[in-house]
Amino acid sequence: MKNIFLGLLLVAFTGAFAQQKELTLEDAVLSYSKGLTTKNMSGLKWVDGANNYIYKEDKQYVIKSVVGKIVSKIELDKFSATYPELKSVPRITHISAKEVIFQHNNQYIHFDYVNGKEVSKIAFNEKAANSDYNKAAKALAYTIDNNLFIASSTDAKIAVTNNADKNIVSGQAIHRYEFGIHKGTFWSPQGNYLAFYQKDETNVGEYPIVDVTTYPASVKNIKYPMAGQKNELAKIGIYNIKTNKTAYLNIDNNDEHFLTSLSWTPDEKYVFVGELNRGQNHLQFNRYDVATGNKVNTIFEEKNDKWVEPEQDAVFLPNSTTEFLYASERDGFMNLYKYNTSGKLIKQLTKFNFPITKILGFDKKGQNVFVNATGTDGREMHCFKININSGKHIQLTKKSGVHSVQLSNDGTYLLDNFTSLTVPREIDVISLKTQKANTIFTAENPLKDYKVGTTELMTLKSKDGFDLYGRLIKPADFDSTKKYPVLVYVYGGPMVQLITNKWMAGASMWMHWLANQKDYIIFTLDNRGTSNRGFAFESVIHRTSGDAAMEDQLLGVEYLKTLDFVDGNRMAVKGWSYGGYMTTSLMFRHPGVFNVGACGGPVTDWKYYEIMYGERYMDTPDENPEGYAKSRVASHLENLEGKLLVIHGSVDPVVVPQHSMTLLKEAVEKEVQIDFFTYPMHEHNVRGKDRVHLIQKMLDYIVEYNK
């Protein structure tokens, strides 16, 4: 095939099979609790103010220098002398040359680990959620229900907001965690102010969640803003620690636009707010005056016919209150731009043809910035050093694979936690001056005593020329003369990447169980629309959800059928969430390709999905009626050939059960047989020991009907 390029990486897990253990499905699904995941250095982090690192080992912490010399140990006895109820060393959130900070019994504690004594503590309410501790202010922001509070050394419950109306929610993440938002409180650099999100959900529709554990069953209504309906109204409050007063930025949000990228200037005089219109195609990055709450200026604007997706905050250059870096995808890839607060674009700092995913920090003199980025291979993650004046860059992590790095406080060393298809884990200390690496930890293969198969990575070509990354898992006792059935495992949606050059290539361990115990080939492909590949690759789905993804998945099927060891007449497909949407769409819109499909939590109609995610890719139902109609799974239901299992958590607040219920209703009306199973009181996925039941059910179904 002209559009297929093969042979990138191969790792063999095989050995002397007669002497190796068989992997059970319970082992595979509960691999972490069974000790079958890769070992790591627990709690590894830099010590603030010194080029030393700390990690947890048994019932103690060990502090070492960058050359591996033990500096000190913090044993359990140091803590238990003051806190006798502790049975192991507490999880620390911060460490300096003398102090650690940890949480214990509803308290944030500053502890002198050199002398073994408590320095200070902040008690907080036992009902606290969404906690956000600021060590400079020695204060904790937290929420109880819909209100925001602060705990200080003198008071465990200072009310920042006091809204009796449950529709007004303060201090929590807004916009359903989209746009890079993962929390709702933002301390100023010196801890003198607390900025926070507030949302008014009065006009947002309610969705009923039924609790079957009560007698009789009871209903809990959640706020769920469905596509095309009313959205939450967002505000930003500023709480002044010294005056104990709260004021709000003067943002007119009657048009239901989104607020994100909330960032403080180092002098605490201003906050930046990314304001994105409801249509998500016009961003204004604005500066607001903390003292007055008024907008000072719009620093820049971004527009795009498809969407603009702000995901990162502004990061100020060291020793500057006016110049900052901002990551934008405006040129097709997430690159860095240098601005000043007046709104002048000083320069585009990077022009990578791959995305920057995070700004890590700067060196001591502020001459270079360090970032995470994929590099030229989208399956990897690396660390780069970029000169702020010239834009020249160096890739600091050299080995092919996925590198998770921590930059030391002075920007002279990296802690590099590295994994690849052939390396379970290796942790190095890298000197940025010499670029030499000192290995401080190596993990052995956690499956060395088990019989598992092989994993191959390959690259296919989409019809419009994009590289598509794939993964193929074969049984341990693979026989090239046999014909094997295939399971295509699919996700296919935005903001997710399944194929990576890390240990097991990102595959779940149950795939190896299926390969070995049931003689299966398992294939996965990251189609167009998935993440870390640039805007053109990702935005092809706009207004036509699933079309390009299915085209690419069928390209994968075409490739599989060229392999002599694949039985092209015995193919199955499985997915969850967006993967459930893909599974049902492939079964209905391309009948006969797969004998059987099994899916969970499927999106079946985009009008039932949330505004923030759904409208970005599909616009509103009124703006894109053709796209919504075509992508509605039940529109093609009567085409079904073969067997389909649909699974849904009964209290799913993400892909609400209405998706599956409406599909089943229409299946009954059209006299189409679909199998259905629900997991009572489980949300968007099935966790804990019940997950073994879930995977068993799905795989048994696939094996039984893929004949």
Structure notes:
- It is a single chain.
- By secondary structure, the protein is mainly beta.
- Helices cover 13% and strands 37% of the residues.
- The strands form 10 sheets. Strands 1-37-38-40-39-41-42-43-44 form a 9-stranded mixed β-sheet, sandwiched between helices.
- It starts with a strand and ends with a helix.
Cα-based radius of gyration, to the nearest Å: 27 Å
The number of helices is 10
CATH architecture classification of the domain at 4-37 and 446-705: 3-Layer(aba) Sandwich
Helix content: 10-25%
Proportion of residues in extended strands: 35-45%
What is CATH's topology name of the domain at 4-37 and 446-705?
Rossmann fold
- Net shape: globular
Note the main sheet: 9 strands, mixed
Let me know the average pLDDT: 95
Q: Can you tell me the CATH class of the domain at 4-37 and 446-705?
A: Alpha Beta
Helix vs. strand class: mainly beta
Low-confidence stretches are 1-18
> Which superfamily, in CATH terms, is the homologous superfamily of the domain at 4-37 and 446-705?
Alpha/Beta hydrolase fold, catalytic domain
How far apart, in Å, are the first and last alpha carbons? 27 Å
Which properties best describe this structure?
10 helices; disordered N terminus; Rossmann fold; five-stranded antiparallel beta sheet; nine-stranded mixed beta sheet; Methanol Dehydrogenase, Chain A; mainly beta; 707 residues
